What does this fold into?
Amino acid sequence: MALAVGCRARPGKSRDNITGSWRVFKPVFDKEKCTKCGLCMTLCPEGCIHETEEEFVAPDYTYCKGCGICAEECPGEGIEMKLEEK
It folds into this structure.
Protein backbone atom coordinates (compact mmCIF):
# COMPACT_ATOMS: atom_id res chain seq x y z
CA MET A 1 0.00 0.00 0.00
CA ALA A 2 1.56 3.27 -1.11
CA LEU A 3 0.94 6.33 1.04
CA ALA A 4 1.15 9.96 0.04
CA VAL A 5 4.01 12.06 1.39
CA GLY A 6 3.25 13.16 4.96
CA CYS A 7 0.23 10.86 5.23
CA ARG A 8 0.11 7.89 7.60
CA ALA A 9 -3.20 6.48 6.40
CA ARG A 10 -5.54 7.06 3.53
CA PRO A 11 -8.26 9.69 4.14
CA GLY A 12 -11.44 8.36 5.68
CA LYS A 13 -9.70 5.44 7.35
CA SER A 14 -11.27 6.15 10.76
CA ARG A 15 -14.73 5.74 9.21
CA ASP A 16 -13.73 2.22 8.21
CA ASN A 17 -12.85 1.34 11.80
CA ILE A 18 -14.96 1.54 14.94
CA THR A 19 -12.60 3.83 16.83
CA GLY A 20 -14.85 4.51 19.81
CA SER A 21 -14.29 1.04 21.24
CA TRP A 22 -11.07 2.04 23.04
CA ARG A 23 -12.36 5.32 24.49
CA VAL A 24 -11.72 5.90 28.23
CA PHE A 25 -13.72 9.14 28.64
CA LYS A 26 -16.75 10.16 26.64
CA PRO A 27 -18.31 13.59 26.12
CA VAL A 28 -21.75 14.06 27.67
CA PHE A 29 -23.70 16.99 26.23
CA ASP A 30 -25.98 19.19 28.37
CA LYS A 31 -28.77 20.70 26.23
CA GLU A 32 -29.49 23.30 28.93
CA LYS A 33 -25.99 24.79 28.56
CA CYS A 34 -25.66 24.38 24.79
CA THR A 35 -25.60 27.69 22.92
CA LYS A 36 -25.81 25.93 19.53
CA CYS A 37 -22.62 27.65 18.40
CA GLY A 38 -21.36 24.56 16.51
CA LEU A 39 -17.79 24.94 17.74
CA CYS A 40 -17.68 21.32 18.91
CA MET A 41 -18.70 20.11 15.43
CA THR A 42 -16.09 22.30 13.80
CA LEU A 43 -13.22 21.23 16.06
CA CYS A 44 -13.95 17.50 16.37
CA PRO A 45 -10.98 15.77 14.69
CA GLU A 46 -13.12 12.73 13.84
CA GLY A 47 -16.08 14.69 12.51
CA CYS A 48 -18.41 12.58 14.62
CA ILE A 49 -20.47 15.39 16.19
CA HIS A 50 -23.65 16.13 14.27
CA GLU A 51 -26.71 18.30 14.62
CA THR A 52 -29.83 16.52 15.88
CA GLU A 53 -33.41 17.07 14.74
CA GLU A 54 -33.88 19.43 17.70
CA GLU A 55 -30.94 21.51 16.37
CA PHE A 56 -28.70 20.48 19.26
CA VAL A 57 -25.48 18.55 18.80
CA ALA A 58 -24.65 14.97 19.71
CA PRO A 59 -21.64 12.74 19.10
CA ASP A 60 -21.65 9.44 17.27
CA TYR A 61 -20.07 7.31 20.01
CA THR A 62 -19.17 4.63 17.47
CA TYR A 63 -16.38 6.89 16.20
CA CYS A 64 -15.78 9.29 19.13
CA LYS A 65 -12.32 8.65 20.57
CA GLY A 66 -12.93 10.73 23.69
CA CYS A 67 -10.15 13.23 23.01
CA GLY A 68 -11.99 15.98 24.93
CA ILE A 69 -11.39 18.80 22.46
CA CYS A 70 -15.14 19.48 22.28
CA ALA A 71 -15.42 19.78 26.07
CA GLU A 72 -12.31 21.92 26.37
CA GLU A 73 -13.44 24.40 23.71
CA CYS A 74 -17.17 24.60 24.50
CA PRO A 75 -17.83 28.26 25.44
CA GLY A 76 -20.97 27.38 27.42
CA GLU A 77 -19.28 24.54 29.34
CA GLY A 78 -22.06 22.31 28.06
CA ILE A 79 -19.90 19.23 27.52
CA GLU A 80 -18.49 17.15 30.35
CA MET A 81 -16.03 14.31 29.91
CA LYS A 82 -17.18 11.29 31.93
CA LEU A 83 -15.50 7.97 32.54
CA GLU A 84 -16.70 5.40 30.03
CA GLU A 85 -18.68 2.57 31.58
CA LYS A 86 -18.32 -0.67 29.65
Notes: The two ends are 35 Å apart (CA to CA).
